[in-house]
Amino acid sequence: MKKSLKERLAILSDAAKYDASCASSGTTKRNSSASGGLGSTEGAGICHAYAPDGRCISLLKILMTNFCIYDCAYCINRSSSNVERARFTVEEVIWLTLEFYRRNYIEGLFLSSGIIRSSDHTMEEMVRIARELRTTHNFRGYIHLKSIPEASPHLIEEAGLYADRLSINIELPTDTGITQYAPEKRPDNIRRSMGELRLKIEEMSEPTLQTKRRKKFAPAGQSTQMIVGADGANDATILGTSARLYGSYGLKRVYYSAFSPIPDSSKNLPLIKPPLMREHRLYQADWLYRFYGFDIGEITSSSSDGMLDLDLDPKLAWALGHRDRFPVDINRAEREMLLRVPGLGTKTVKAILSARRFSRLRLDDLKRLGVSLKKVQPFVTADGWTPHRLVDRTDLRAMFEPKPEQLSLL
Question: What is the pTM of this model?
Answer without folding.
Answer: 0.87
